[in-house]
């Protein structure tokens, strides 16, 4: 047993992926409602209109968490329920806010620790229309700061706060690939607007500044009395050189983590972007003003880690195109020796490799001075899961093994390598709206029957989590 007695484990979800109820109680559209309405953007034309209907089933979801013994629940708030138009001079929708206040009360009554993400990709649509949303360097951080303050004030009982989920995805998938809302890209066959060579870096910068602003508000106005912690959640794969004998691949494997994770984490811990990024991107990567740098540097009480998979990395030719976001390299799931990085899943990007998890926890810990880490997402889809019968889906041994192996890799990083990991949230509590893939890809530890009133059936993996963490956490 190697994990601290107060190690917090549970499950994670996100508002747009589970809530449904898109026009209930005064909620206004988010950019995802708008994006889903564009034909061809989401598999089978799906959307979050109903999703798991969690907005109307909070009691059921809490009962589910209790049933599987979860200690904690990470969920996100829908900004456009709370401030429908989003901005700092727009009205607060009390009904939307009250919903979350009550949800937190109910979780606490059930003995479950809430962990709140303020932003999991569902920007109020009005802010995108009004001033370009995440692209606006002046307005966006101020509006986010205001939204954060409204929430901190209303929910003092929450002690774990995450400002942004995966700014990498909000930047690259939404402003380079055009695959996520609002769908910008330089590829004119996909979108009439966008500049993949510049917009992702601008968006990333603005998200960092908005994060810094919200953290300052929390620390100045709430933390002294509420005594919670706040941080940002970053995603990134572990990497291995495609050819471990080639120093250029070794360097590229390092650079891939810099372009995905250190892009955000270096400013948060050091107040500047990685040198490798400045070198490749030049002035397309914004410069921090002195005021911005001061807001961002030192703005994490903990490091929020989302992690799923690993890649082999091969160096590029030294001439990356302007739309390159990865750091002049290519990735693959097999290496030079023909070895596969891990078994296939339903997600083309995801091949389990638990050793990579341990390596990456070490990489982060070394670079950032062994900060407290909360793993805020980790999980897997299963190849062909959606084609099986319910009975078969409930026997999700592949996912059980994934959680087992990843939790043991985490425990080794703590016990043998001295890393400071304090929590773990499995993705996801239940099957849900998997963004551009709609409902085809299931990440849940609970099966949701979309054909039958979104009924929930815990899979084997949901029940496996408690014994798994009981076996790893030291008793007081
Ligand atoms: C996101 C989740 C998503 C999961 C699986 C993470 O990148 O935060 O919203 O469902 O990966 O793709």
From TrEMBL:
GO-annotated molecular function: cellobiose glucosidase activity
Instruction: Name the UniProt key words of this record, in alphabetical order.
Output: Glycosidase, Hydrolase
What EC number(s) does this enzyme carry?
Answer: 3.2.1.21
What would be one Pfam family of this protein?
Glyco_hydro_1
* Bias (Polar residues): 329-338
| InterPro entries, alphabetized | GH, GH_1_N_CS, Glyco_hydro_1
Biological process (GO) annotations held by this record are:
cellulose catabolic process
Gene3D superfamilies recorded: Glycosidases
Task: List where the protein spans the membrane.
Answer: none
Region Disordered: which residues? 315-338
Which PROSITE patterns would you find in this protein's record?
GLYCOSYL_HYDROL_F1_2
Q: Which domain of life is it from?
A: Eukaryota
UniProt keyword annotation of Hydrolase present = yes
The reaction(s) catalysed by this protein are: Hydrolysis of terminal, non-reducing beta-D-glucosyl residues with release of beta-D-glucose
Composition bias, kind Basic and acidic residues: at what positions? 315-327
Q: What does this protein do?
A: Plays an important role in cellulose degradation. Shows hydrolytic activity against several glycosidic compounds.
Family classification: Belongs to the glycosyl hydrolase 1 family.
Under what name is this protein listed?
beta-glucosidase
Q: Organism source for this protein?
A: Microdochium trichocladiopsis
Lineage, please?
Answer: Eukaryota, Fungi, Dikarya, Ascomycota, Pezizomycotina
């Amino acid at each position: 047993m190697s994990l601290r007695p107060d190690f917090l484990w549970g499950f994670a979800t996100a508002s747009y992926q589970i809530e449904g109820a898109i026009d209930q109680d005064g909620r206004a559209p988010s950019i995802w409602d708008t994006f889903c309405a564009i034909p061809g953007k989401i598999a089978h034309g799906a959307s979050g209109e109903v999703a798991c209907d969690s907005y109307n089933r909070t009691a059921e979801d809490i009962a589910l968490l209790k049933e599987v013994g979860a200690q904690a629940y990470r969920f996100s708030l829908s900004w456009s329920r709370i401030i429908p138009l989003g901005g700092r001079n727009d009205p607060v929708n009390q009904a939307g806010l009250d919903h979350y206040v009550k949800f937190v009360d109910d979780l606490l009554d059930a003995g479950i620790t809430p962990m709140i993400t303020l932003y999991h990709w569902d920007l109020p649509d009005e802010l995108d229309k009004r001033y370009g949303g995440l692209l606006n360097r002046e307005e966006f951080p101020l509006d986010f700061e205001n939204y954060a303050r409204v929430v901190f004030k209303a929910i003092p009982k929450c002690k774990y706060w995450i400002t942004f989920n995966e700014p990498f995805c909000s930047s690259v998938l939404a402003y380079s690939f055009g695959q996520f809302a609002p769908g910008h890209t330089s590829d004119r066959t996909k979108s009439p607007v966008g500049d993949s060579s510049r917009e992702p870096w601008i968006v990333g910068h603005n998200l960092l500044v908005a994060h810094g602003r919200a953290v300052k508000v929390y620390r100045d106005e709430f933390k002294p009395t509420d005594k919670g912690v706040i941080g940002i959640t970053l995603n990134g794969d572990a990497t291995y050189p495609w050819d471990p004998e080639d120093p250029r691949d070794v360097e590229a494997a390092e650079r891939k983590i810099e372009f995905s994770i250190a892009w955000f984490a270096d400013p948060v811990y050091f107040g500047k972007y990685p040198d490798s990024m400045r070198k490749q991107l030049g002035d397309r990567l914004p410069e921090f003003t002195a005021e911005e740098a001061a807001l961002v540097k030192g703005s994490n009480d903990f490091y929020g880690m989302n992690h799923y998979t690993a890649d082999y990395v091969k160096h590029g030719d030294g001439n990356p195109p302007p739309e390159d976001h990865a750091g002049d390299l290519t990735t693959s799931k097999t290496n030079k020796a023909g070895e596969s990085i891990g078994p296939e899943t339903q997600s083309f990007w995801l091949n389990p490799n638990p050793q990579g998890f341990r390596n990456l926890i070490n990489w982060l810990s070394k670079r950032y001075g062994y900060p407290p880490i909360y793993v805020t997402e980790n999980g897997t889809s299963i190849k062909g899961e959606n084609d099986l019968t319910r009975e078969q889906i409930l026997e999700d041994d592949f996912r059980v093994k994934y959680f087992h192996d990843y939790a043991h890799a985490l425990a080794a990083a703590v016990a043998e390598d001295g890393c400071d990991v304090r929590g773990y949230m499995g993705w996801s509590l239940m099957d849900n709206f998997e963004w551009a893939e709609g409902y085809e890809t299931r990440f849940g530890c609970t099966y949701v029957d979309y054909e039958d009133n979104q009924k929930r059936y815990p899979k084997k993996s949901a029940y496996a989590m408690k014994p798994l963490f009981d076996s790893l956490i030291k008793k007081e």
